[in-house]
Design brief:
The protein is an alpha+beta fold and 330 residues long. The protein is built from 10 helices and 13 strands.
Length: 330
Amino acid sequence: MPIIESHRPQGMSATGGGHGFARAAWFEMLARHCFADRSCLWLRAEADGRSITLPLVEDGDQLGALANYYSFSYGPIVEGHPSRAGQQALVAEIAARLRGRYNRVSFYPLLDDGTARLMRDAFASAGWIALLTDQNSNHYLDLDGRDFATYWAGRPGKLRSAVRRKGRLQPYGFEIHEEMTDALWLDYQAVYSASWKNAEPFPAMVRALAEEAAARGALRLGIARAEGAPVAVQLWTIEGDTACVHKIAHDSAHDRNSPGTLLSHFLFHHMIDREKVAHIDYGTGNNAYKRDWMERTRPMLRLDCFDPRKARMWLPALRTRISQLVRRPG
């Protein structure tokens, strides 16, 4: 079973992995804009026209997932529709290739959707100590065929009351854009810089994300305006049947009138009744406001793989095992 190893993606289509966050294009954006000063390693295993690619980042004698806070989840790039057993076998081949060269390989964030356990089992079969721990939460919404009115009727009374009171005077106009122009980027930046949020660490990544999504028809950039000036922005993409909320911000000078909440109401209505999405995903993080809009949470898992032949890895493995017992993913 051949393994292709490179510092740039090779042998896969630009849209490898379909939509979402396990695509060649997504990982390339991360590598270019967030990890430009790091050495990225792409490992690809192939068999019978099917393949798995793991994009990784080198850190001395350790490897980590090519992922960060922009990533809703991490997973291998899968092409050719291998079966679950086939995927595990391909990942195991990569894991065997890494053993002896690296002391530790870590992956985060992993969804508890089968991917995390497939990765764990593959690395364990290749001789690694592979441990999963619960690290964070993901808030999401399954609509189960509901329209917006039905969904909205189930929101907390405090939220519904706030939208009713704040929206009564119609202080804002709302827009949704499917492309990112220079003018719209300036609007986005103006709101973000006037918000409560820390400075964006990689603004070029956010613009690249928006432009790449626009090119495949997936961008939905929401803007609230007061007398023409932008006061709230939200950057969403549609990944398959799921709407993903990447960025939200509003001008703190308008806190009293809650433009961010009103823009969320407008966008949720649009996504549910017009776009007909089946799910809405708020990404990683356990922010309190997400509970008002979402209905479910699921764990975000971390997989740490240690080479047991390296004595210096025994103590970190033991510490991770203790953490696993305290925060066991199930």
